[in-house]
Write a structure and sequence with these properties.
Elements (H helix, E strand, L loop, with lengths): L1 H15 L2 H8 L9 E5 L6 H10 L5 H10 L4 E4 L2 E5 L2 H6 L4 E4 L12 E7 L2 H17 L7 H4 L7 H7 L2 H4 L1 H4 L7 H8 L4 E4 L3 H12 L19 H10 L1 H11 L5
Parallel strand pairs: 1-4, 1-5, 3-4, 5-6
Antiparallel strand pairs: 2-3
């Protein structure tokens, strides 16, 4: 408890430090009645494409801003009057930004009022296979990404090794982002409070509806996909589908919500 209080105090200090500039700039934002947009960035569902679309609203190339945010110490930048924040829970909860995003589970954040929340979902089996192909592509090509320090250890000589080693919060990341205990009811309840969500298979339609809700003019941005593609046996895919049963039940419920 003491350590938690110390972290909260430190977080508040970071948010308050030099916050006047960001607060005054953020107060000018009006996104159809909202003050900011936050993306619940679920890995391998199209979130990077969505991020780049929002970055492009500043007039800069999305991939360049993404790299700037990644390499800036506090993961916050300003470009053409728009504040962007990535991965920094203190600033994300503080609310002084135009667009924020992270892989932080929604149940670990306390977003301020008037935050437009958005996410993209994907077929669970396809998402996990995509995650695996990405990591294998990094390994095969000697690409040193930060995630490989941990996630590279989940790889073996075959996809089955990956399934044996990947932690549940990464295997069922779509469910975990909305419930720490993988509770379908809790996750559905939290997802129902999103301002907007859509599925990767209907990406363009989802963006069109997002533009209608926000009054923004997001345009498609191509993001490079992994060239590595492993041929996975059908019985292994059946095993993976069984492992993801809870997440499938969650998404089936989400599809029926009116928020979409």
């Amino acid at each position: 408890m003491v350590a938690q209080r110390v972290r909260k105090i430190a977080c508040k200090a970071r948010v308050d430090l030099h916050s006047k500039r960001y607060r005054e700039l953020a107060e000018k934002y009006d996104i159809s009645g909202y003050k900011r947009v936050y993306c619940v960035h679920i890995r391998k569902t199209g979130g990077t494409s969505l991020n780049n679309m929002f970055f492009s609203l500043s007039g800069a190339k999305g991939s360049i801003l993404q790299q700037q945010i990644r390499h800036t110490k506090d993961h916050r930048i300003v470009h053409n009057g728009k504040i962007y924040v990535g991965w920094n829970a203190c600033y994300i909860n503080g609310g002084h930004y135009f667009y924020g995003y992270s892989h932080i589970p929604l149940h670990k954040l306390k977003l301020p009022k008037k935050t437009f929340t958005v996410t993209c979902f994907r077929d669970p089996v396809k998402r996990v296979v995509s995650h695996y192909n990405m990591l294998m592509g990094f390994r095969e090509n000697g690409i040193k990404r930060p995630c490989m320090r941990v996630e590279g250890k989940w790889l073996g000589n075959r996809f089955e090794d990956f399934l044996d080693r990947i932690p549940s919060r990464h295997l069922m990341n779509q469910l975990y982002m909305f419930s720490a205990s993988y509770d379908v009811e809790e996750a559905v309840d939290r997802a129902a409070r999103l301002s907007h969500y859509f599925f990767a298979r209907d990406f363009q339609s989802g963006i069109d509806k997002l533009n209608n809700k926000t009054g923004l003019a997001l345009k498609p941005v191509h993001v490079h996909k992994s060239a590595y593609q492993e041929d996975i046996p059908e019985d292994t895919l059946v095993r993976l589908r069984d492992m993801l049963d809870s997440e499938y039940r969650f998404l089936e419920r989400v599809k029926k919500l009116k928020v979409a």
